[in-house]
Write a structure and sequence with these properties.
This protein is mainly alpha-helical. About 55% of the residues lie in helices and about 10% in strands. It has 7 helices and 5 strands, in the order αββααααααβββ. The strands form 2 sheets. It has a 3-stranded antiparallel β-sheet with strand order 2-1-3. Helix 2 packs across helix 3 and helix 3 crosses helix 6.
């Protein structure tokens, strides 16, 4: 009887270890879209890359705003994949490089990591103009977004995160690209 109890104790301990490992992985996740997870470290890398090429005006932008922009950019790419005739990254990048969205985004687009998000946000703007906001939201919601509660709650109706509890601004300067 003691051996059977010990066996169950070992199974229970292994199960707890597994769950603890999964929880640690979830704590390190900033968000996921479908099966693709983005770590907090990736958010920090993007933030640092954009801050490094900005003029210091982004220093007070909170992490949730960067995450919101990263999610928007990725959702735009996923929605665009189901539409033909949407502009290429090079075509989307041209007005950014020419300063049509201002010198800050032009400077930030020099960094490839930062440029990916800026181009994605520009793509989102183009898609909303082409297919309408309601349709964009509906198509974006075909991709499940899970958010680390540390950063707030994802609102699928508005495609925004809210309730972060931080001293966040309404959106980062990146989210203004192309709007």
């Amino acid at each position: 009887m003691l051996a059977k109890s010990c066996r169950w104790l070992v199974v229970f301990a292994l199960g707890l270890s597994f769950l603890a490992g999964c929880e640690y992985a979830r704590i390190q996740m900033a968000y996921s879209i479908g099966d693709d997870e983005v770590s907090i470290e990736e958010v920090v890398t993007l933030t640092n890359a954009c801050l490094a090429v900005s003029d210091g005006s982004l220093d007070d932008v909170p992490e949730p705003s960067w995450i919101n922009d990263m999610i928007h950019a990725e959702l735009a790419r996923r929605v665009a994949a189901s539409h033909s005739g949407i502009l290429t990254d090079e075509e989307l990048r041209r007005p950014i490089d020419e300063g049509e969205f201002g010198p800050l985004l032009q400077a930030m687009a020099v960094d490839q990591t930062c440029a990916e998000v800026i181009i994605g946000l520009t793509l989102m703007s183009v898609l909303i103009q082409e297919i309408g906001e309601e349709r964009f939201i509906a198509e974006a919601n075909q991709h499940e977004v899970l958010l680390n509660p540390r950063f707030g709650v994802w609102d699928p109706e508005t495609l925004t995160l809210s309730g972060s509890g931080s001293m966040s601004k309404a959106g980062s300067p990146l989210s203004q690209a192309g709007r």
